[in-house]
Amino acid sequence: APDESWMRALLEPLLGALEVLHREDVFHRDIAPDNILIGDDGVPMLLDFGAARHVISDRSQTLTAILKPSYAPIEQYGESPSLRQGAWTDLYALAGVLYWLVTGQRPSDALARLREDTMPGASAIGNVEVFGGALLRSIDWALNPDESQRPRRVADFRRACLPMLGGEADGASAASLPTTAAALAAGCSVIGAVLF
User: Fold this and answer.
1) Which of 9, 76, 85, 137 is deepest in the core (most CB within 10 A)?
2) Is the pTM of this model over 0.90?
C-alpha cells in the first residue's frame, strides 16, 4: 500500500508535468492508472498523449470524446460548448487516480455522480493517519462532479496538498520541480512497472 512518501514521490513530478503542459494550453485528457508508468528509479511518467489537445483561447473548444469512465469528468462526455475542458479536467482525472490509491476503490462514473453523488469521499474513507487530511480533502475537491467547483490550476491543487507535499506556506515554485522538457524526456526512457 502507498504511504505518504511514496505519494509525494508520485505527485510532485506528475503535478510538475501537468503544469508544463497546461502552461502551453495542452490538456492530457486521459490520465488514469494505466497511463502512469513508474520507472525502475521510482520516477513516475505520464504516458499516452493520444487524447491530448492544444486549445487556443477564444476559439471553438469542440474536442473529441475520449474517456475512461472512472477517471473522466463530465465535460469529457459530450461536445457541447458549455462543457469546457481545461486544467480542471486533468486534475479531476489525477484525483481519480489518487482516490483509487488511497481508498482501493475506483471512483464512480461522473455521469452517475452528477445525478446522485453517492460515492464516499476520500476524506471519509481514506486513512488520515497515513495520508493526512489535506491530501484527502484535496482529492475530494478535485473530484467534484461540477467543474466550476474544482481547482482551476495545478498551483491551486498543489497549495491544497501542501502539508502532505511538505511545501512552503507561500506555495511550491513550479521552477523548483523537475519539469523541463529535457527532464521529462529523460524520464520517459526508463521502463518499469505500470500502475493497475
Assistant:
1) 76
2) no
